[in-house]
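> forwarded from #structure-qc
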């Protein structure tokens, strides 16, 4: 298009081929599947969490490091992996073994300060203290390898782990528990019937809003009720 007279310079963008007879039809990109894709990603995360249970879904443990350059070195972030010195101070001698128990290792990184060395060593010790390592073969357990190794899956240990949300099978392997079959009768479809007078007069939109609001705030209400009961019992004990 050529400018003619005292008119503005044409700046129209006709690069999208909407017409079906265009030479490059089908090149217009739209994002109508944003909401379904969000749900699909969430279901994939849940599926992966079940597959790798009880390992964390966010990957291995990583150190806390300072950002490079003078402008950002006051900020901290997660690094690539722990150094060999940090592993040794935490009691882990073999870096290859560390990778098998969910600890990231970076052989190229060096410790330039005692503060970062102490911080990441403490981070490793805390992780090792909380970790429970399930052996591949319960009968052949290497003792003294790491704290928290389950050597015998006796009844007491099974009960303790189940209270923490970890379940073991007969071979001592962890698995994701199946959801309890509770409330299945409540989900059955109701048989057809006539509406009552109360249901006819009810404002459906307001009723559904109230149900949604009650569903969201049920936890807060139960907590508030428990506090009131605890307070009443305390006052009764004083009397």
């Amino acid at each position: 298009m050529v400018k003619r007279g005292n008119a503005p310079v044409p700046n129209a963008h006709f690069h999208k081929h909407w017409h079906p007879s265009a030479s490059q039809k089908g090149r217009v990109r739209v994002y109508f599947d944003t909401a379904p894709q969000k749900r699909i990603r969430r279901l994939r995360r849940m599926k992966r969490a079940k597959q790798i249970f009880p390992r964390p879904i966010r990957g291995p443990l990583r150190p806390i490091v300072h950002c490079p350059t003078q402008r950002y070195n006051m900020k901290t972030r997660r690094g690539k992996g722990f150094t060999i010195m940090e592993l040794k101070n935490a009691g882990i001698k073999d870096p290859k073994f560390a990778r098998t128990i969910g600890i990231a290792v970076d052989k190229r990184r060096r410790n330039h300060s005692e503060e970062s060395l102490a911080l990441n060593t403490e981070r490793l010790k805390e992780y090792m203290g909380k970790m429970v390592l399930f052996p591949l073969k319960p009968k052949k357990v290497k003792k003294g390898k790491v704290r928290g190794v389950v050597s015998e899956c006796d009844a007491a240990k099974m009960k303790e782990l189940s209270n923490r949300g970890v379940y073991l099978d007969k071979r001592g392997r962890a698995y994701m528990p199946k959801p309890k079959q509770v409330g299945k009768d409540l989900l059955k479809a109701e048989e057809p019937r006539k509406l009552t007078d109360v249901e006819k007069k009810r404002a459906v939109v307001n009723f559904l809003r109230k149900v949604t609001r009650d569903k969201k705030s049920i936890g807060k209400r139960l907590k508030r009720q428990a506090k009131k009961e605890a307070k009443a019992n305390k006052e009764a004990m004083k009397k």
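QC bot note: The chain has nine helices and four strands. Confidence is low (pLDDT under 50) at residues 144-154, 179-184.
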